[in-house]
Specification:
25% of the residues lie in helices and 31% in strands. Helix 4 runs antiparallel to helix 5. Strand 2 and strand 3 form a beta hairpin. It is built from eleven helices and 19 strands. The chain has three domains: 107 residues, Gcn5-related N-acetyltransferase (GNAT) (Aminopeptidase, 3-Layer(aba) Sandwich), CATH 3.40.630; 161 residues, Aminopeptidase; 90 residues, Nonspecific Lipid-transfer Protein, Chain A (2-Layer Sandwich). Bound molecules: coenzyme A (COA). Coenzyme A binds next to strand 4 and helix 3.
């Protein structure tokens, strides 16, 4: 017997469910003023709550957007942006029931992929989500770090006022486009919190934009942490890069050159950068680009395995048949032939067997089949197929999300 029901959140229940999420994540309750300003970015649509009578005890929220997959196709995505269970009701199946409802809803609405960022990496594998992109944290000490003389130079960097940034950055993000697998669209409800960090009472973010021959083509958002203390009055500030977005190598170099030119700074720190961002190669001294962490970024769930596998491209290699087991969405369980020309269901014998969460790790190209087989996540039935799967699924640019939600 369960003592709760899972159902869509009604319009009148939006604020109570947001407060519930805030409590489960140990943030403060939202003030009346903030709710008046940002409540619209927590719409009732695509939210499922667990209710004990009329009282919410759990929330699983998502919004509809899109994601780029290898080869450049863009697919509908359910972006899971808020999950929490009231602390006195955890470990009794509330999350499990909400996830089941949410996944069934994605499947019923024809959304082939779902994704999230995990507060704890042990939570979501059981629901078929796999760690699909990694992000690195880099530290560039100042004034030591400077660009190599051969790094391209071009265009101009200008700083925006917060009000200009609120107007210009959403359009610029859209124009830059989803140029790496794993990047996602940012719908209207994503932006208010980012805007609050620019123009809100505690807004501390600063924005600079690069313009090249074709107009604005990149931007960086950062804030500063003052490190001066009584004992070290000369310690400079640290720049914390919140995001740096561009598809253009000249703009990329110019934005880093700008960051490394700011005075009274003891270092630049940037989290969740693409693992293959060539910062070490861009610096005069390789060792001034210090990777201090590599962590899981986007977690991906193939809701419709056939559609998702067919939508991405593959590199040339011998075909491989995957046996996929999906305990949560059993319609996905089956065999899929992956070839250089595409992927489809098949009755042929399987070369490699894997669960839905491992397929989420393989899909964008972040993890090789070899690594996943070594880790015991892929069962190898035909040893020759591992190298073929490596070749088929690999991508030249590492996948990267670049959007926190
Ligand atoms: C994480 C959280 C949502 C889990 O909700 P829940 O209702 O307790 O989960 P369930 O009872 O459905 O548990 C499902 C399974 O996950 C396990 N589990 C639950 N929370 C876990 C955690 N934090 N770490 C590891 N495993 C966890 C349970 O033991 C259970 O395992 P089982 O299927 O082998 O029995 C809840 O603990 C919570 O709200 N935590 C604080 C907020 C948070 O972390 N939100 C996630 C943001 S990404």
């Amino acid at each position: 017997m369960t003592d709760f029901d899972v159902r869509p959140v009604a319009e009148a229940e939006r604020r109570a469910t947001m407060d519930l999420l805030g409590r489960s994540l140990h943030t403060n309750r939202i003030s009346d003023e903030s709710w008046a300003q940002y409540g619209d970015s927590w719409p009732a649509a695509h939210k499922f709550g667990a209710f004990d009578g009329d009282t919410p005890i759990g929330i699983a929220s998502s919004y509809d957007t899109e994601i780029a997959v290898p080869g450049g196709a863009v697919l509908p995505l359910g972006a899971v942006d808020g999950v929490g269970v009231r602390a006195d009701r955890t470990r009794r199946g509330v999350l499990t029931a909400m996830m089941a409802t949410q996944l069934a809803d994605f499947a019923a609405r024809g959304i082939p992929l779902a994704a999230l960022h995990a507060s704890e990496p042990t939570i979501y594998g059981r629901f078929g989500y796999g760690s699909a992109t990694l992000g690195k944290t880099v530290w560039l000490p100042r004034p030591a770090a400077r660009l190599h003389e051969r790094v391209p130079v071009g265009g101009d960097v200008r700083m925006l006022t917060p009000e200009e940034a609120v107007k210009e950055i959403p359009g610029l993000y859209h124009r830059i486009g989803l140029h790496r697998a794993g990047m996602i669209g940012r719908p209207a409800e994503w932006w208010p919190i980012a805007h609050d960090r620019l123009t809100g009472p505690a807004g501390s973010h600063v924005v600079a934009v690069h313009s090249g021959p074709g107009g604005d083509d990149g931007y960086v958002v950062y804030d500063t942490v003052d490190r001066r203390t009584l004992d070290s009055p000369d310690e400079g500030a640290v720049l914390k890069v919140r995001e740096l977005q561009t598809a253009d190598p000249v703009a990329h170099a110019a934005l880093w050159r700008f960051l490394l030119s700011i005075d009274l700074v003891s270092g630049v720190r940037s989290r969740y950068r693409p693992v293959d961002e060539p910062l070490a190669a861009m610096l005069a001294d390789h060792r001034d680009a210090r990777t201090t962490d590599v962590e899981d970024d986007l977690w991906l769930r193939l809701v419709d395995v056939a559609t998702a596998l067919a939508a991405r491209t593959y590199r040339a290699a011998d075909p491989v048949v995957l046996a996929v087991t999906d305990g949560r969405l059993p319609a996905n369980t089956g065999h899929y032939e992956v070839t250089a020309d595409g992927a489809r269901r098949t009755d042929a014998a399987a070369d490699l067997a894997l669960d839905a969460d491992t397929l989420g790790m393989l899909y964008l190209g972040q993890w090789s089949a070899t690594a996943l087989a070594q880790a015991g996540r892929i069962e190898v039935r035909n040893p020759g197929a591992v190298a073929s799967a490596d070749e088929l699924f690999t991508t030249i640019a590492a996948p990267w999300c670049g959007t926190y939600f």
